[in-house]
Amino acid sequence: xxxxxxxxxxKKAATRQKIADTxxxxxxxxxxxxxxIRDVAAEADVAVTTLFSHFTSKEALVFEQDExxxxxxxxxxxxxxxxxxxxxxxxxxxxxxxxxxxxxxxxPVYRMIDESxxxxxxxESMRLRHADALAAAxxxxxxxxxxxxxxxxxxxxxxxAYSLARDxxxxxxxxxxxxxxxxAAWEVVRPASAPNTVDGRDxxxxxxxxx
Length: 211
Known about the structure:
Blueprint: H1 7-30, H2 37-44, H3 48-54, H4 66-78, H5 86-101, H6 107-115, H7 117-140, H8 148-166, H9 171-189
């Protein structure tokens, strides 16, 4: 996400980050169910209304990078240069997201998510929303867009790649393995106008007419 430039925007971003950091600390210290919105607001020294101006729900406090992740994925599509292949750009973003979420200290957060039904359901709805946004971005580019169902399928594969790789023993290797399959699927459904990709590179071979 673009860094805030104005003083007001920087102040809002700092407040949002303070609330999110405070919430996560309290959730890990006391347990997610034992901490309420008012507890987070009091600890962060903000009004409850201020908290809700930044986060729509208690669950959203745990996933404070939600909007950033979605924006990065859609921008990976909308920022493609002419003749730049789609799948390698998406793989780069998913790899960065997976690395962000597998740094030292992340394991307790995902253990907390796994143990909370509310957080699991929120994460699932978030993944579906990200997939819908990504599918819409692919469909909006006339040089890329295959059939609508194919757009949705590729987007779902990409979002699932994040979840699967995040939980793998070797996340980087898992990203590569999964994206080999995604790339193979994309080669089947991509329109003739979309760049060819071989091992993440444009192979320069024109699309042959079908008999």
